[in-house]
Design goal:
By secondary structure, this protein is mainly alpha-helical. It has one domain. It is 84% helix and 0% strand. It has four helices and no strands. The longest helix is centred in the N-terminal third of the chain and has 18 residues. The relative contact order is 0.16.
């Protein structure tokens, strides 16, 4: 069952990256990072978040960084 949870989380993360864009994707990734307990999945989600931030335009990047700074649990 643990493997099923991991696959479900990865599937959700993959579908979010395909269909969401911009700031809403960043907010969703932050929520997923905060809600997962598995360190491997959390690491993968953080990499996706970094990639998302790297590909954003400057206007959205400032708003996205605000979301990350305020909502991401360290």
């Amino acid at each position: 069952m643990n493997i099923r949870k991991k696959l479900a989380i990865l599937t959700v993360a993959a579908s979010v990256s395909l269909f969401a864009n911009g700031i809403s994707n960043v907010a969703t990734l932050v929520e997923q990072i905060n809600s997962t307990k598995d360190m491997a999945v959390k690491s993968q989600l953080k990499k996706k978040l970094e990639n998302e931030l790297a590909t954003m335009n400057k206007e959205d990047l400032a708003k996205a960084k605000e979301i990350v700074d305020s909502k991401l649990k360290k």
